[in-house]
Amino acid sequence: MAEDHPVALIAGVSGIAGRGIARHLLSLGWTVTGLSRQAPLPSIDGLRHLPVDLRDAEAVTRALAEAGRGVSHLFYCGRAPDPDPQVEADRNLGMLANVVTALQAAGAPLGHVHLVHGGKWYGSHLGPYRTPAEEDDPRPSVANFYYDQQDWIAERAARSGFTWTATRPHVLTGFSLGYPHNIASVLAVHGTLCRLASRPMTFPGHPGCFESVSQLTDVRLLVQAVHWCATTPAAANDAFNVINSDYFRWRDVWPDIAAVFDLEAGPVETASLVHRFATADGTWRRLAAQKGLLEPDIARVASGAYGDTTLSVWWDDMCSNAKIRRLGFDPVFTSRESLLNALVRYRENRVVP
What we know:
The chain is of the alpha/beta class and 353 residues long. Helix content is 43%, strand content 13%.
């Protein structure tokens, strides 16, 4: 492996994590190829993109037969959700296996594989869990593709001689377009619709979510952590929580969020964002035409379903940062800063007016 000229392959490059990792590595002088069914939007200068469905083993093998020969680092961010956790686990393990197997068949000098996972490792999506969650906490007794992927890559790495790491962010926050599963884009659309209706910016989630302790991961923090994991020998063959430096309550940051839209902060008013965004489709298209917005399809800007799920969590969400900090990774991002920065970027990029 040529350490002075690292060559990265990013599986799932069109998502918020994959896109951020690509931009960060390119800024550091890496050669980067990305796999996804659709190219990331906006386009990324310097990225070689290969359109491929990671579920199709033959297509992945064909795509990487030449492009995979020089890959020294794989950053795996791909995922294919399914309502059945076991189907989801089997499918996502297969996708990872397809990529690694194809790289090895191409003769890639693979030295490191990094997996981007998340707080669902701890059952954060199922109900109250032990907080602050630590990386070695017992696994909940449910199917979860994170478990299958980490176990598989650890065994494959031991046999093949490469190292692996995994990061576990929680509620990624930053700018993204074409990947609507982002709490910042949900808030950007919700705030814009409240302003159009000349009403206060109400909190559309569960009352308990408004009051409970929450956490975020700034995508800028995640990409730094991913690079650190992949290039720090002391981090090899381990997994790390990557969370902003603070915890927060939505009630405390809501006035600042509303102020971005020049609105009064309203009370909790639980409502279906799926319904609200769907019924606003025509309104959004007219707004986009009038204001010259980048994306006229509201569904490509923000997912109401993701917003409803994220803002329905009434229990505390807390993961420990101690493990990664003890090894020397310690950039500081605060949750208020992350949210406000992302919302401003949606406006600067003409996604919202």
